[in-house]
Amino acid sequence: MTASSSSPVPPPANPAELRREVGLGGLISITVGGIIGSGIFALMATMGSVAGPAALVGLLLLGGVIVVLALPYAELGAAYPQTGGPYALPRRALGEYAGFLMGWGYFLYAFVGTAAIIDVFIEYLGTYLPGLVTTSGIITWTGIGISLVFLAVFTLLNIVGIKWGSVFAVVSTAAKLIPLLLFAVVGLFFLREGGLGNFTDFGFAPFGWTGVMFAMALGFFAFTGFEAAVIPSEEVRNPRRTIPIATIASVLIVTGIYAFVGFTAIASLHWTAVGVPVGAWGQTGGVLLSNLADGWGLAAMGAIVVAGALISTAGAGGDWVLLQGRMPYAMAKDNLFFQKLGEVDHRFRTPAIALVFASVLTAVVLLALPSFPEVVLIASITALVPYGAAALSLTVLRRSDPGTPRPFRLPGASVLAPAGFVLATILIYWASWPWTLVGGILMLAGFPLYYLFRRPNLRELGQVAWVAVYLVGLILLSYLGNPYFVYQNFLPIQPIGLYGTPLDLLWLTIFGLAMYAWAYRSAVGSPPGPSPSAGPRAHGREG
After folding, report:
1. Exposure b/e, 182-205, CB count within 10 A at least 16 = b
2. Separation CA 470–CA 456 (nearest Å)
């Protein structure tokens, strides 16, 4: 069933409303729990294998990028507390069509990312239960069956109520942080050669600064989820104060934890004890935190880290199920997705149908997931486009809707917002060929999909033209650019290397700023989109 732009479906006489049951602690836990999943337990191995010790610099730079991308959400989430922030905010600023495209991209990221996290959970679980994972890293049918059971449990937990989902987030977040911090502290007593040997003896940046850039692209997925604070906005107590505090605090907490763990992981690497030739940073990709602890001679610490990884991935899986159902729910409320997904369960006051719908798609991905790293890169690309759109939406809404109170106002927004858009553009490029192509095509699929729910007029087509040009432009820039940024290319086509680094950064910056200016002019040159909180009746328009 689809919504007609000329015949909006009226809301029920007494629609059920979401309950505001999430406080500051619960929202920070949901956000931190959504960010810290499986990534940190292999993050430094992945980044270190392409950047060496300079991966720590890449980690800190990535934290700074995330802060720039998160700050617009802090202001917008407090000013416009509607469920489905990564969709609802661009829709308000850029119009229905652009909002739908951003919601579509974020929804892709959400349910694909959830499947990836649950897959990693099964891989860790395979440490204790043989037969879940093959020697080549493929999940067996037994493992898939268990993953579907866990997905069903997470879904049921969030259908019962976000209160219990947030309680689960508090418990699981604490449980996952304890092993990580314990690893980081204990590891300080097992540093190699005074703690600085691994940073100095074999070259600080053995693969150059291009390697650091690639490491940032590989590590980005470990930071995604910072926008979680604005997604369940209608279920948050005192959202105008709670949301900005939770957003900023969560990013700072996660960056600090990652930096602490990253320093210990690099400094405490005992090469021969983990089976890697001394100084061979390129061969450290398979060295997990548990392997490092085993290399210290502390098998018990290694077991604690594995247990922490299980708790972390399980907790993140529950958080992501909570969040992914809110996106189709928010879009359906505005007649931009299937109507049934916009209904709230009268007993539990949660978007139960949307939760089940999103989890079914996650189950499909679990059954067909080809490879975790590649899917992570796709998820990162489809998330970065909405992240950039959020930065753009900040300046657009300040211009088009200056009267709305802003409890938190981002200083220097005229610089930070376009900077965030450009940084998102650069990270998409670093996410590597051919995944820039795959991610771009998946995002472009949202253009014809929109026609199931609306018939855009010429003005609306003009408003979203920049999105199509932006996505196609990114694909071309990736194809023309540095052949270093290639990962598991399954195509016979390679980037041609027309320009390398840093010239590619110059072109990406110019391209990003040009797209930002075009998108801003397209948005402020016409009336802003309808308010996502006004309901389907208010949004009806003639197509």
Report:
1. ebbebbeebbbeebeebbeeeeeb
2. 19
How far, in Å, CA of 4 to CA of 540, rounded? 9
- Token readout for 25 is 């602690």
Q: How many degrees, rounded to 5, is the angle at CA 459 between CA 458 and CA 465?
A: 85
CA–CA gap between residue 333 and residue 538 (Å, rounded)? 11
> How wide is the angle at C-alpha 406 spanned by C-alphas 400 and 410, nearest 5°?
90
Nearest C-alpha neighbor of 321 from the set 164, 146, 443: 164
Handedness of CA 129, 132, 134, 138 (dihedral sign): negative
Query: Which pLDDT score, from 0 to 100, does residue 212 have?
Result: 93
Give the model's pLDDT for residue 172: 67
Q: Which has the closest alpha carbon to 220: 428, 6, 23?
A: 428
CA angle (25, 81, 449) in 5-degree steps: 115
Beta bridge partners of 486: 433
| Partners of 236 in beta bridges | 22
Tell me, letter by letter, the H, E, C secondary structure of 36-104: CCCCHHHHHHHHHHHHHHHHHHHHHHHHHHHHHHHHHHHHHHHHCCCCCHHHHHHHHHHCHHHHHHHHH
How many Cβ atoms sit within 10 Å of the Cβ of residue 455? 12
Q: Please give the Cα distance from 92 to 359 (Å, whole number).
A: 27
- Residue 486 structure tokens: 């290639």
Tokens at 13, concatenated: 């006489």
Cα torsion through 168, 337, 361, 43, rounded to 10: -60
Across the chain, which has 543 residues, the per-10-residue mean pLDDT values are 38 50 74 75 82 93 92 84 72 90 91 82 78 75 89 87 58 77 92 78 88 90 78 67 82 91 92 89 83 89 86 75 81 85 82 91 79 80 94 95 87 94 97 94 95 90 95 97 90 93 95 97 67 36 29
**Sign of torsion over alpha carbons 254, 119, 110, 105:** positive
**Do 312 and 117 contact (CB within 8 A), yes or no?**
no
End-to-end, the C-alpha distance of the chain in Å comes to: 18
**DSSP string of 366-409?**
HHH---HHHHHHHHHHHHHHHHHHHHHHHHHHHHH-TTS--SS-
Tokens of residue 84, six digits: 């489905």
Distances (CA, A) of 268 to 265, 277, 299: 6, 15, 15
From CA 378, how far away is CA 376, in angstroms rounded? 5
What pLDDT was estimated at residue 135? 63
Q: Would you call 7 helix, strand, or coil by DSSP?
A: coil
Q: How far apart are CA 69 and CA 72, in angstroms?
A: 7
Q: Which residues pair with 433 in a beta bridge?
A: 486
The residues facing 47 across adjacent strands are: none
66, 223 Cβ separation under 8 angstroms: yes
As separate numbers, helices (DSSP H) first and strands (DSSP E) second, the chain gives 21, 0
Check: CB of residue 142 under 8 Å from CB of residue 126: no
Looking at domain 24-528, its CATH class is: mainly alpha
Largest Cα–Cα separation, the chain: 72
